[in-house]
Design a protein that fits this description.
There is one protein chain. The protein is built from 6 helices and 6 strands; from the N terminus they run E-H-H-E-H-H-E-H-H-E-E-E. The protein has a single domain (4-136), classed as 5'-nuclease (Rossmann fold), CATH 3.40.50.1010. It starts with 8 loop residues before the first strand and ends in a 7-residue tail after the last strand. Strand 5 and strand 6 (133-136) form a beta hairpin. The strands form 2 sheets. A 4-stranded mixed beta sheet has the order 1-4-6-5. With 143 residues, the protein is an alpha/beta fold.
Length: 143
Amino acid sequence: MAETSLVNYFLDSNTWLYAFIESQDQMKSDRAKRLIHDNVFIISAQVINEVCINLIRKAHFDEVGIQQLIVSFYLEHYVVDITREVLLRASEIRSRYRFSFWDSIIVSSALNANAAILYSEDMGDGLVVDGRLTIRNPFGPSA
C-alpha cells in the first residue's frame, strides 16, 4: 500500500467501472485504464463495495475474481475506512454542498485522507470543497 502522504488523488467508483467493464464509450474506457495504470489512488471501502457489486451484476465476476480485486485494491492503493468521523463530516458536507448521501461520504473520505483531487464523473467538475479538495471529471476537457 502506498504512503498516504505521497498520494494526492482519490478515485470514485465510476472511473474504476469504465476501466473494468467494456463500455460502448471506448474513449472513457481507454482514459480510465490509462489513469489507473499511471497512478496510485486513495479509495474508500465504499468505492470498493460499489465497484464489486457492479462487477458482479454487470460483468458477472465470480467470487474468486472479486476476492482478487479486493486484495489488489488494498495492496496497490490507500484505502480509507468509513469511520464515525467520516460519516459526521459527510453530514456537514451534505448540508453545505447538497451532495447525495453516498457522494458526501466519498467527498468526506477524500478530505479525511488529505486528497487534493477527487476524480469523479458526476460531482461537479472544478468544484473546490473546503478550500482544498478539487473535483475533476476524468473524462472532461480539463482531464
